[in-house]
Write a structure and sequence with these properties.
Layout: H1 7-15, H2 30-40, E1 52-57, H3 60-66, H4 72-80, E2 83-90, H5 97-100, H6 107-110, H7 114-138, E3 142-146, H8 151-158, E4 164-173, H9 189-192
Helix pairs in contact: 1-7, 2-7
Length: about 200
């Protein structure tokens, strides 16, 4: 674990990886989605709470349920993508802490503390969504993360009981690299970082 990964792996995960909006007509299998989650689920979360939940929309019927809640600019790319993931968070994630974090009474840290529950849900489901994207890239898939959607509408459509709550969306599949725009700049180290 103390050996750096190859530059080619860094290229696949970060340096050459891109956000895709156009997709090849190649299916992503259920087995691939299961493998993807198995890898992504290994990433760290606060007190191993794992509040992230993932709904993989892979059929036209499932996409039709999502479509009315998408921002107009996200409709075409989402309908074309083989899979769209609703990255959500379980508002009762702490109920599993006796199993997921058994060496301490971590459940008591959260029970009744709505502010801590909300903060932990958002931070850690966002982390878990990012782990899912990195795992997807590691497995040869491309990603198109999106926040342009009606959260209340998605929650009513897919999570009517209110326990799970949507965070963001990720289109998954095999991107059409011929349709990519030039890579956009990033802030330089001295603009974004401080060493103290």
């Amino acid at each position: 674990m103390s050996t750096a990964i190859a530059d080619s792996a860094l290229d696949q995960l970060f340096n050459l990886a891109r956000t895709h909006h156009h997709w090849q007509a190649r299916r992503v299998s259920d087995a691939m989605l299961r493998r993807l989650y198995a890898i992504a689920s290994q990433g760290p979360t606060s007190a191993n709470g794992c509040p992230g939940r993932f709904v993989f929309l892979s059929t036209p019927e499932a996409k039709a349920r999502l479509e009315p809640h998408l921002a107009p600019g996200n409709v075409a790319q989402t309908l074309q993508a083989p899979v769209t993931v609703v990255v959500a968070a379980d508002s009762e994630f702490y109920e599993a802490l006796p199993t997921l974090y058994p060496h301490s009474d971590a459940r008591s840290w959260f029970a009744g503390n709505d502010a801590l529950i909300e903060e932990t849900m958002l931070r850690n489901s966002s982390l878990q969504g990012a782990y899912l994207m990195l795992a997807a890239r590691a497995l040869g898939l491309d990603c198109g993360p999106m926040s342009g959607f009606d959260k209340a509408g998605v929650d009513a459509e897919f999570f009517a009981d209110g326990r799970w709550r949507s965070n963001f969306l990720i289109n998954l599949g095999y991107g059409d690299a011929s349709r990519l725009h030039p890579r956009l700049p990033r802030p330089a180290f001295d603009e974004a970082c401080r060493i103290l």
